[in-house]
Amino acid sequence: MKALVYGGPGQKTWTEIPDPTINHPRDAVIRVDAVTICGTDLHILGGDVPEVQAGRVLGHEAVGTVTAVGDGVANLKVGDRVLASCISACGVCRYCREGVYGQCLGGGGWILGHTVDGVQAEYARIPFADLSTYRLPESVTDESAVLLADILPTSYEVGVLAGQVRPGDTVVVVGAGPIGLAAILTAKLYSPTHVVAVDMAQRRLDAAKQFGADVTVLADGNPEGVVRELTDGLGADVVIEAVGTPATFELCAALVRPGGRVANIGVHGKPATLHLEQLWIRDVTITTGLVDTRTTPKLLDMLVAGQLDTAQMVTHRFTLDRIVEAYDVFARPAETGALKVVLTRG
Q1: GO: which molecular function terms (predicted)?
Q2: What range defines the domain where residue 245 resides?
Q3: Per-residue pLDDT for 124 more than 90?
Q4: In this predicted model, what pLDDT tens digit does every residue of 167-192 receive, in sequence order?
């Protein structure tokens, strides 16, 4: 089969590799029908995730059809159409028993495209398949479902839920890329008074409006002044960091009100300054986290019921053999207007 193989920082190749096989009784193998590219994949290529070794197949978001199951898989059969979660869960370690699957001690957590081969390939092995896949109803398209593999649960859990968004809040989302847009979409479920989007690119701010932001501001357009004017000088109740750079983290800390909450989603490859000399007295809560995907079933139910409109998230479509081109488009959003790119079998 062919797969996208990481060759070290800045290097990737669509190349022939051996087909995946069942390595453990709890494994399944899927034929990849739809896959997408994550900002985390760009961080890997940028050298920000040194745990990823050269030779690794990238990717952790896919919809596929089961082609083989191990003897220990109880709830899947060949032919099932499934969502492959970005998080794998052993189900029996202390963290899994608490629903904190991202911190799995039994060989799971974020492993696909990280510590084991991922899903940007024609076929993929899925460890802990019973707990790491979700059977999909016919009414849900591959394109809609693949956005639930990572982006929607990440934004919802690590941004909206960790930030404790409440009715009447002023919520600021710094970064209007796919993760930020998903945070806006899911924050709206809690009826905030204002949702403010901050980004460097006007095209992404225009997209943020479509996803529910009622105020948008360019990063160099005095976001602090805009937020303070909206909040009678207080600052935002919740600020969601959706980029992963020192500058955006520090901006979030500057935008939050005393007693407010900063929820960091972004993947950081460099140290960011925590200004405790300013924050220590302001009762600010800062959260970080890796998605657990415990909300994926709920989000899937909302998708089926028409309560989540993910269709507008996908801006570019490719066949799987054009994945190198898709990466180029996704990596230049200011020029291409790319939000999410979806690749399907040719």
Answers
A1: oxidoreductase activity; zinc ion binding
A2: 153-287
A3: yes
A4: 999 999 999 999 999 999 999 999 99
The CATH number of residue 270's host domain is 3.40.50.720
Which residue shows structure tokens 């982006």? 151
What whole-number percentage of the chain has pLDDT above 70?
100
Asked if residue 129 and residue 7 are part of one domain, the reply reads yes
Neighbours of 286 (CB within 10 A): 18
- Per-residue tokens: 162: 């960790």
3-state secondary structure of 15: strand
**In what order do the strands lie in the sheet containing 256-264?**
215-218, 194-199, 170-174, 236-241, 256-264, 285-287
Q: How far apart are CA 172 and CA 167, in angstroms?
A: 14
Residue 6 has a pLDDT of 98
Residues 139 and 182 grouped into a single domain: no
From 240, 270, 287, the end of a domain falls on: 287
Q: What is the pLDDT of residues 217-232, one digit of tens each?
A: 999 999 999 999 999 9
| Residue 298 one-letter amino acid | K
Task: Tell me how far apart the alpha carbons of residues 91 and 103 are, in angstroms, rounded to a whole number.
Answer: 11
Domain boundary among 287, 304, 333: 287
pLDDT of residue 309: 85
Rounded Cα distance, 213 and 198, in Å:
10
Distance from chain centroid for Cα 265: 9
For 81-113, write each residue's pLDDT tens digit.
Answer: 999 999 999 999 999 999 999 999 999 999 999
Q: What is the tally of structural domains in the chain? A: 2
H-only helix segments in the chain: 39-45, 94-97, 129-132, 142-146, 151-154, 178-187, 202-211, 223-230, 246-255, 276-279, 296-304, 323-330, 333-336
CB count in 10 Å sphere of residue 100: 18
Q: What is the mean pLDDT of the chain?
A: 96
Phi, psi angles (nearest 5°) of residue 6: -75, 130
Verify that 70 and 199 share a domain, yes or no.
no
